[in-house]
Each structure stands twice: as structure tokens, then as C-alpha cells.
Design brief:
Chain lengths: ~80, ~150
């Protein structure tokens, strides 16, 4: 089935609900992507650059979660 | 939020919304839908017949439909990883609003303590957002439910 063209839905309730859903989706992609990058040996600095945020921001957001998940969270 | 005015059950619901619902879904903050899920599982509201799993399914469905409306399918994406860290619960705006509305409902009825049914009333008071959308999908009549509180 071809994907429907992305457009702003006519019903504003649907459009605004999509914003929330997309933010949650972006968070999930970010969580998975950061975990995978670090597992592949990326440094926090590289991850931060790829996301376009500061190293401190990405570390603050992900370090605890990833160390709890058993992934290394070095300070490189 | 004046949590000291919350009855024991109501506090337990807020904590469960964080520990059992938000964190297990990878969310660091409690949203109104996490309060709804915790309320639906609480024994004090069992007589209302809210089905936790059905609401959970409806929330997933709501997410899927909302993404589909802008041409996005996330079907193959892995589930969010659960947050293991024990931390103080953070309340998102939707949850704060629900708690404030629950508090206002208790005040209107001159109830001294915030009970679980006040919280549910507060959660159901939202006209917009994931809660009313998911309840509609689940076929739950919010007006009828509110009348029974």
C-alpha cells in the first residue's frame, strides 16, 4: 500500500494529536539511535553533533537510562 | 501540587501512574493517560468496569491513527525501552491539569480529601488530548461515566 501524502489533516484535533504522536515517536527513535550509536563505539560528543545538541544535553538526557539498561556510559 | 490533601488511595494512584504506567512505557513524566491507566486498575474504582487492557489498546490505536493522519507508520519500530531508574515522578502538563481539575471537583463537593473518583473526574474533564480520543476509540461513554462518579 503506498504511503498517503503527508499533509496537515483537515480536522485540527487530528493535526494537533499528530504533533504529540510525532514527538513521542521522535523520542523513541532518539532513544534507540543513541543506544545503538554508543554500542557501536560512538562518543557522546559524536552523538551530540549528529543530533545538533550539546554534549551536556545528550548526556543529561540519556546517560542514566543507558547505564540502567546496562550500556556503558563513559564520559568520552 | 498539594499532595498532602490526597487520600492514601489517590496518592497510590499517582505513584502507580509513574511506576507502573509511565516508566514502563519509557516516559519520564506522568501524562493524563498514565493516570487513567492507573485509575482503571485501582480496586476503589472497580465498580465502574474500566478495563485497563482495553484502554491501553485504545491508546496504542490512537497513536497509530494520529501518526497515520500525517502519513507516518511506526509499525515496525521497536517498543520503547522501560525506564529502570527510580526517580521522583515528574508531572506533565496534561497530568497537572487533571489533578487540578480533580482538586477543584473535590472542593466543589466540599470533600476534604482528594479521592480516586475525584482524580478520575479530573482526567475525564479533558475535551482534547489522548484521553478523550482513546476513550472514544474504546467505545467508552465519558458523559455516562462522569455521571456515575
Amino acid at each position: 500500500m503506498p504511503a498517503p501524502p503527508a499533509a496537515v489533516p483537515d480536522d485540527p484535533a487530528d493535526a494537533l494529536a499528530a504533533v504529540g504522536a510525532l514527538r513521542r515517536l521522535a523520542d523513541r527513535v532518539e532513544d534507540g539511535g543513541v543506544a545503538r550509536a554508543l554500542a557501536d563505539g560512538w562518543s557522546w560528543g559524536q552523538v551530540a553533533e549528529a543530533l545538533g545538541v550539546t554534549r551536556q544535553a545528550v548526556h543529561k538526557k540519556h546517560a542514566r537510562r543507558l547505564s540502567a539498561a546496562g550500556l556503558k556510559s563513559g564520559d568520552r | 501540587m498539594a499532595l498532602e490533601r490526597f487520600a492514601k488511595d489517590a496518592r497510590a494512584v499517582v505513584l502507580a501512574a509513574y511506576q507502573e504506567e509511565a516508566r514502563s512505557r519509557g516516559s519520564g513524566a506522568v501524562e493524563a493517560e498514565h493516570l487513567l491507566l492507573a485509575l482503571s486498575a485501582h480496586p476503589s474504582l472497580r465498580h465502574l468496569g474500566l478495563d485497563h487492557d482495553r484502554i491501553e489498546q485504545a491508546l496504542d490505536e490512537e497513536e497509530e491513527r494520529s501518526l497515520a493522519a500525517v502519513g507516518v507508520s511506526a509499525g515496525s519500530l521497536e517498543s520503547p525501552t522501560a525506564l529502570a531508574r527510580p526517580r521522583r515522578p515528574t508531572l506533565a502538563t496534561s497530568a497537572k491539569l487533571a489533578l487540578q481539575r480533580g482538586l477543584a471537583a473535590a472542593q466543589r463537593r466540599r470533600d476534604r480529601r482528594i479521592q480516586t473518583h475525584h482524580l478520575l473526574y479530573g482526567v475525564l474533564a479533558a475535551d482534547h488530548g489522548r484521553v478523550p480520543r482513546a476513550l472514544r476509540i474504546a467505545g467508552i461513554d465519558v458523559e455516562e461515566l462522569r455521571a456515575r462518579l
